[in-house]
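User: For documentation purposes, I need each entry recorded in a consistent format: the amino acid sequence on its own, followed directly by the corresponding structure tokens. There are two entries in this batch. Please keep commentary to a minimum and don't merge the entries.

Assistant: Recorded as requested. Entry 1:
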Amino acid sequence: MMIVARELPHLLSDDDLDQLSAEWRLYENETIPNECVKDAHSRYHADQEKMQRLINEKEEAESAAKLLKDRELLLIEKEQKLIDERNVLQRELDNASKMLDEGNSRLEAAVATKNFGDIEVAQLLIGGANKKLDALKTQLNDNSEQMNQLRKKVKK
């Protein structure tokens, strides 16, 4: 109403507008029932609680996503560590196989020359290589089991 009155200045004077504005404010304050204020206040609180729940749910979801990502990164790091360990064990296995081959070739040469000192050295090489091979095979099996368990965790 005030906007219309200002747009049509010939209807009301500025003094009339000020008086009308003051009366309107007085009327406005008197006619708002307390129930409306209480209802608005309770709706405001309900909306605030709903917003807080939504914020909490969002934070929980973000936290869960971060934990999941951290868990995945940890599993990837463990897998890489196991792969590196397996590669080291494989190199050691290759070296032990070479040591066994060296022992066998020395044994053949020592038997051919009938040199008992060289036979003992060859037997030591073969015995050490066999022990090393057994230990490495056990470690490789353990590594493979750990990799399988880790991959099952990743699939979950």
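Entry 2:
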Amino acid sequence: MSAPSPTSSPTAPRPDEVIMAGVHAFQERAGLFDRGAIAMLRRMSPRQGPWPGVFWSFITRPDFAGWTEGRGAENAWAVLLAGMAEMAPLIHERGTGLGTALRGPREGGGYSEPRLLRLLRADRPDAFAYEFAAATRWCASHRRPFDWVQTAPLVFGRMAGRLDADNAARRIARDYFRPFGKGGSEPDTATDLPEGIAP
């Protein structure tokens, strides 16, 4: 049975607030992490716990209360932090959905459709973690940051049964498959927050 969403508590922080705090905290600390810490974070996966101390010191922040308890939530944070470490220092771009980042700046220059569909269809935590890691490595190598707040429902949904992963997957697909602009280039548009993470 899925763990209940912490948003049911009137005192629990909203998921978008927690993820944005996590993004800011990671960006602030990334320059302070030594290479060994970043490498350990990049290698994290749900199958390879217990994770290093840098992970636990990060997720036990008081402002994350309600969103780090339980194995599923811990696994979700492991996937998120591994991806952020992979993409450091170019991590977050507000308003750019994961689908927009993965489709690339021009027609034919993005993440392959079969790999995207494997990511969006992965419903087992281990399979999802593997596919998400592959996607973040591609974004890192192509310098394509994306909005982690928009992406969080997919991660928490697949890894912890929280938030609306299916709606997030559909939003990513819409962004990826929408037509390119004139000349096959990417139009300068931003996507809204997906349902399931907005208040």
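Summary note for entry 2:
Confidence is low (pLDDT under 50) at residues 188-199.
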